[in-house]
């Protein structure tokens, strides 16, 4: 029993430290930014006695939604990655592997670059629809790719093949995005390139009103599928053996993942490496593959990492910000490398 | 027998090696440089990256490298058509002038050619969607002017088929492979870096650069002189202004708000128009990448907002609801420079506007201080509704 | 007088069919052709019965297993588990009737034995797989059955192959189904583990009264443990019966006939067929004599029971006495005996003498 108690103690200890870190990093994220606002002043702002109106705006309209976005994005994109890794039994799977991020990119590319007239369309969607159109296009893009992968997977019913199909769709959409860029106005390409940097700062309250519920809901759904995902760890036949409807579960998990990743991608742009790296970090810390522990664990790790990445990308003390994707890659790539080297082979890393 | 045959081959090789296509015009002795009998020597007053020297039998143009102080980006030797090229080996391009056929790849190039009335020499443009000028646009529509593709991917075959006397390109700090292939094929390239000039008069002074290629140095000079005169006159109106409204510009994308730095022509323009720009002393090689909160903190109370990329206030609000926090937005003092737009999206601000800094300055003065220019109508700018 | 009621109480086996098939035809169907591996099977497995499926490679053992487990569609016919038609079954219902242990190696990452076994309780738990007291009891019991109670909190990946197999059997037990199916449960295992697994299964069938159905290559073990053997054959339809009946009817020899092997009805095992070098006469029935006989046979001698034969071997006083014609050689062990025989060309040069 002692071994088990130690495990449980460890899980609770990490959870406790994790939640503590989230709270302190959240407060740190709120207090650090391009504009220097002292801690005393922050307390004044919260109690409604801001000495400068712009600081109140900065706090409530920028830093607060951005910090909340960091939390939602960190949890969502990481859990999406975990689900893909379990579903495809592939330690390097992530939302981008299934072509979901690529699909979202295609949607956004059509949206942002659409003032080109290759198909005789002269409307600039971005100018007529604003950021809502962006979301719509990104989600439909990822959903379209998802449908294609689903169609292919129904014929193949083999996880590895589905993964390859997902990769192929990723390449296809990537190619279409490149061609679109090729025919586009450099000014619009600039817009698209800025979007591909990935940013949490573009999310305002009205967008958070959509993003928040969708991500919270899909995270809850994901928790409800921890049982099925554990069974899937044993393989599809074993999962069938313990009463899991494998094809249905697979479809639902892919759906949850695509809505989760598609929505996040729409609002923040593709965020690199977090989806692949954070589940490994959670496995390392919690020393378990049990999804009942791992899903909440991944959420916690994702939130912590995303808050840290956001704080770093703010370059506290300077007036400018760094692209978030570079920061997440700087964190994510070494984590993946470390895990691969530590476990010597990829199979062990799973 | 055999040795004779080898000798013939060697002789042939030697002859080929000595052959120079320019030798064909050796017998020509007429050295006529300018259409006018007197030699006109233009003076470059504002442009930092340009120098034009006119000599007896050739012109010498140096485009300085804006990214490397004291370095030359590219140099041109222009010599009269029908004469022997001067033996200046280190110049990148030796071009016989006046030129007859030009391909432009960016809106300001059309503006430059328009200013010296040489629009009819344009045989190719990048893409019809960058064209505002109705004369060129029509010619593109009925196929008299070809589309060679944008900067990133000009269609080499079409370009070579046109084989113009000059291809005008926007100069960057690196030369593309396809340029080298064009040069190999004998198509000279003009690397325009007027966009790197730090004020609008300097930008407009590049009229003199393009004038040189058409032997219209004098015409170019007089066109620029009148623009300069108008500009300075407008400037004098604001010189003693005490009450300078604060100005913000551009817009945010995904958390980064690109604001003009101290080196930007926009910064100069705002100050010339009697406005106050908060970041006027911030140094940066390009524009300043600022975070939204820095902009909000410093410019929330700005009086005017010029040049956001939007067609209406509503669209601006939809892009990011936090734009409504600015005083300029609340009071409706948002101006964009897309008053003169073609159906396809060509914007005259980027076309003729680059050679008419006087009009742009008057527009901006009119926005900041309407009482100073009561008779001026906004030309490029309009108020967002 | 035999008290039937009493007997039923003590051994309530083989009374209720847990699994039966009617007109089951298995095989593969492609667009162009149909490959039937077994036709019109009507087979039964009862409670408490341990059934071993054996047969040469490629005869369709896996296909039969997969079809019965519902992982593959039959070409024709129906399978019933506890009278429920497998075709009309819902996934969660299915998991309460049949549990599986498969050959595929599983790679679960960091999961404890306890966590794996509790997956067996999934058909009974809620959405969040919350274990109730009853589930815990069942898991404990299952772990006890496979002697893994001390391993509960060990990581699955750190166990030996035999222990892993026992964990998966415990998972199947925890699933508490009337039928447990195991595909090659002894593959990849060393001999002691193989014996242990088969013993556990045999015991479980009796103790829990479950029907256990497994496929195996271990003929010896199957003959010793199975209540019923299903013998598959490439040529004919599947035969079933007690191991002994199948041996006596010569089915084994028929199915596994080969030039290199011979099925020995007496020992119930295969023997390697060796080319005969010559004859040796051997006396005695004690342990040493039995192993001497094995050694001689292995080395290619036909052992005869003829006291008049010119080569004789006796064992006594910790010595092997080899008698060739009138000469007697004393050997310390079997190795020496074989050595002498091998080098004594004279002994076999004139067998007629």
How does this structure look, described?
- The complex is a heterotrimer of chains A (350), B (385) and C (353).
- With 350 residues, chain A is mostly helical.
- Chain A is 77% helix and 0% strand.
- Chain A is built from 15 helices and no strands.
- With 385 residues, chain B is α/β, with parallel strands linked by helices.
- Chain B has 14 helices and 17 strands.
- Chain B has helices spanning 2-18, 107-115, 134-141, 156-162, 177-184, 200-204, 207-213, 217-238, 265-272, 292-299, 313-319, 327-330, 348-351, 357-368, and strands at residues 50-54, 59-64, 72-80, 93-97, 102-104, 122-125, 146-147, 166-170, 189-192, 246-249, 252-253, 256-259, 276-277, 288-291, 304-306, 334-336, 382-383.
- In chain B, a hairpin with a 7-residue loop joins strand 2 (59-64) and strand 3 (72-80).
- In chain B, helix 7 packs antiparallel against helix 8 and helix 8 (217-238) runs parallel beside helix 14 (357-368).
- The radius of gyration of chain B is 24 Å and the shape is globular.
- Chain C is of the alpha/beta class.
- Chain C has a six-stranded mixed β-sheet with strand order 7-8-9-4-10-11, sandwiched between helices. In chain C, strands 1, 2, 3, 5 and 6 form a five-stranded antiparallel β-sheet that branches. In chain C, strands 15-14-16-17-18 form a five-stranded mixed β-sheet, with helices on one face.
- Chain C is elongated, with a radius of gyration of 26 Å.
- Classes of the chains: A mainly alpha (350), B alpha/beta (385), C alpha/beta (353).
- Chains A and B meet through helix 3, helix 5 and helix 7 of A and strand 14, helix 10 and helix 11 of B.
